[in-house]
Fold this sequence. Notes:
This protein has 485 residues and is mostly helical. It contains 16 helices and no strands.
Amino acid sequence: MASLKESQNFEKGRIKALQDERIYIQKKTFTKWANAFLEKARLEIKDLFTDLADGKILMKLLEIISGENLGKPNRGVLRVQKAENLNRCLKFLATKIYFENIGAEDICDGNPRLILGLIWTIILRFQIQEIEIEVDDEDEKGEKRSAKDALLLWCQRKTAGYPGVEIKNFTTSWRNGLGFNALIHAHRPDLIDYERLEPTNNIGNLNNAFKVADDHLGIPQILDAEDVDVNRPDEKVILTYVASYYHYFAKMKSEMTGGKRIAKIMGLMMDVEKMVDDYESLMTTLLEWIHAKVIHLNGRNFPNSLDSIQKELVSFKDYRTVEKPPKYHEKGNIEAQFFNIQAKLKANGQKTYTPPEGKLIHDIESAWMRLEKAEHGREVALRDELIRQERLEQLAQRFQRKAEIRETWLNDMALILEQKLECNSAAQAEAAIKKHEAISAEILARKDRFSALNNLAKELVQGNFHSKDAVKTSKLHSHYLNAND
């Protein structure tokens, strides 16, 4: 009987020792966890069971971790003041999560079990509850996972394939320290030389992960290696610490995504800036070409010959068929560039682009209309000039043919007139007279022809025929003018 009683007392003592050890580890871990936040307000908890009694530190902790304002606490000197501060904290928590069996007096009196339960409730609500993981398995899609299961799934995914790591829970799976190292290596392989870790060196592995996380990632070391390297590590403290890994790497991913987004926006802005430069450069070049071409097309200082006008027409045709089409294509590209710029800016939610004065789409349209008008005017002028030159050329040819005939006739008459006549008798004299009368009659008969020829010459001179000087100095024209004088 005595032996049974001793055995029962021993078991009770062992359980009491384990409970005390668990309370000690949770108190130590939760204190470090809270101080990691309170450090921002330059506050510190030294004893978790007594330092929350006035409610002021607890109120500040809730404000920091929730991002909400709980108001200004009272002095917290009298018990009633402490209770008022604590009740404000509990009332705030009641709006966030359901809990029971704890009142302001429990915290004020330093009830270890209830205070640890309160802190664990805060950790669950603000550190673990919002963890969500997408499920890839078709059979499990749409199912609601608890935050704890979601965090466990996240750990399993991140550590899959790492030798010596098999995450099944938040207790024994972490004892050898390889799980913590694998989580860090999966996100920052530059910080952990995983292959050099020894699977049997639990304390060394745990300390390595805790130190790297604290030194390089800013994850506070709220755990001690000796608290994890035990037969049954406390689930709550492991959960609390692993959750800090999740939040850090989720934030890192978000910042990287944000950085990529910013880089994308910057890249877009640079693309748009280059597009704007190209647009303005193309616009300037095309407007300069149009301006110079309009001046040329409006020019009427044509060369004074049929052959030269025909060459001008060939050149004008080349302008229309060879030079102008690429410019029209450039005009289309400029318009497309402008609308592409506006589309990119709109898609990015940015203000639309306003080109400098004189480089609007309207400006290029107006310039192109002026070009078309000048082009039409030149075509009409060239056709008119061609007709004029062709007519002058025809007149010149007629003048040349008639002039040659008249000149031959004049030469023949001159030879006849130069002949010496012998009038030794009345009959010879009468014959000579009749001959001269006949010549005079023929000359008079041809006067109109010479007059018409002279009119041709005048028309060529007045029409600015390119060989008008030759016409002016021709013998027939000179003889006619002298005869009229």
